[in-house]
Amino acid sequence: MLRMTGSGWVGLGLWSALADAANAAAIDSKRPKVADRKFNSIAVEQYLAQTSKTIGDPELAWLFNNCYPNTLDTTVQPGQFEGKPDTTVITGDIAAMWMRDSSAQVWPYLPLAGRDPALRELLEGVLRRQVRSILIDPYANAFMTDLNATTPLPWSVKDKTEMKPGVGERKWEIDSLCYPMRLAYGYWKQTGDTRPFDGPWAQAMKLAVATMRVQQRKHGLGPYRFQRSSTAATETLPSDGFGNPVNPVGLIASGFRPSDDACTFPFLVPSNLFAVTSLRQMASIAHEVVKGDALANEAESLAAEVATALRQYAVAPTVQGTIWAYEVDGFGSQLLMDDANVPSLLGLPYLASSPDTALYARTRQFVWSERNPWFFRGDAGEGIGGPHVGRDMIWPMSLIIFALTSDSDAEIVKALRILKASSADSGFMHESFSKDDATHFTRPWFAWANTLFGELVGGLASRKPALLRA
Questions:
Q1: CB-CB contact of 241 with 227 (8 Å)
Q2: Quick count: other Cβ atoms within 10 Å of Cβ 242?
Q3: What is the dihedral of CA 47, 14, 56, 458, to 10 degrees?
Q4: How far is residue 208 from each of residues 132, 173, 188, 214, 436, measured CA to CA in Å?
Q5: What pLDDT shows up at residue 440?
Q6: 3-state secondary structure 333-401
Q7: Which partner from 32, 132, 348, 391 sits 20 to 30 angstroms from 210, CA to CA?
Q8: pLDDT value, residue 470
Q9: pTM to 2 decimals?
Q10: If the chain, 470 residues long, is cut into consecutive pieces of 10 residues, what is the mean pLDDT of each piece?
């Protein structure tokens, strides 16, 4: 039997050989059999094999081999729409495509796309699917695999908001528009391919910028509102579904956080910082590829306005010095905390969204300490969680981001040790684990955390190889 790959048609026997090489250090691989994988890439298999040779710890190599390809192995659904690539990426155990997760899940594969045409086409399909989704509803955070589906995710059926066909959930989150901009920019820079940046892409980006402008709330509350019947306050928005009041100072209001939890104060600072970066990246594509100067200029103008407002309203005083607040309202109220989901304050450098090194350093010290109400330390490790899962639950994602944004060997080694233990011999990362018992965890199949872990280990093989040889 033959299978199409980035290098042409190859036999499944070769796939098995590649898989054996990639899993040489991984006894009892947790990957699906080659024939059962959603997508196969020779470039990815070669990368796994090469990187595994640099890892001295067999358990770490085993985790890397299981986790890095998990998105491709289990969550992608390649296809075509109107003769062009169209790729759905589900989150794992939830059969829907989040704008944020889908972007983050495939991000670590971008450096390999230039030498694997099939992988490049798959990623192009993700960009095109995201464009189709934005054009359906720029306020939605999740979409169904069938964009004509009239039934959303089960928990969204009775939501009081304007649901449209294809929408899985309609929680307005700024990063749902930022992540597709980041992915588009990364794809362009890594591959040089400009095919995805056509008329529909420009139309979707214009709509994205316009949506952010509306949510500056300068001319009223805007059209978006959301209410859900729930015992959890974080599942619905107060004030008739518009969220708590804001002073329109130039920041962009968000209904929900990247965790899908409702904002306390609608100006979510890490997402606004991410928006500054993403808008400028998108503007670069608009200028250089699309030749859409009007779109680029509007994006750059919005980014500049948000950047100025962040300096004026999002910096909070503490005894240890000024830090970034997590949320503000423009009236003077500031929420000091951090959540594990990215964009987070901890993850700002990872998203190229940290404009002040000293301010970030102080913020980092704050969020990775008990001064942050969602930081936990126990017998199983330490890290940041969030209201989405609750008290005493650490998200491996926070530890991965902690290591990705650290240059300290000691910090990185400590994070790797906790991450290995958090797997609880499952071979994968999870959504969260108890601070005192790693065998108590949530979501055994969470592809974003898995691929992000693979990105961390693969990156360390380049920037700090000595840490992996031990």
A1: yes
A2: 20
A3: 20
A4: 12, 12, 19, 10, 42
A5: 97
A6: CEECCCCCCCCCCCCCCCCCCCCCHHHHHHHHHHHCCCCCCCEEEECCEEEECECCCECCEECHHHHHH
A7: 348
A8: 77
A9: 0.94
A10: 39 51 61 97 97 97 98 98 98 97 98 97 98 98 98 98 98 98 98 98 98 98 98 96 98 98 98 99 98 96 98 98 98 98 98 98 98 98 97 98 98 98 97 98 97 98 94
List Cα–Cα distances, 416 to 100, 366, 400, 456, in angstroms.
25, 21, 8, 10
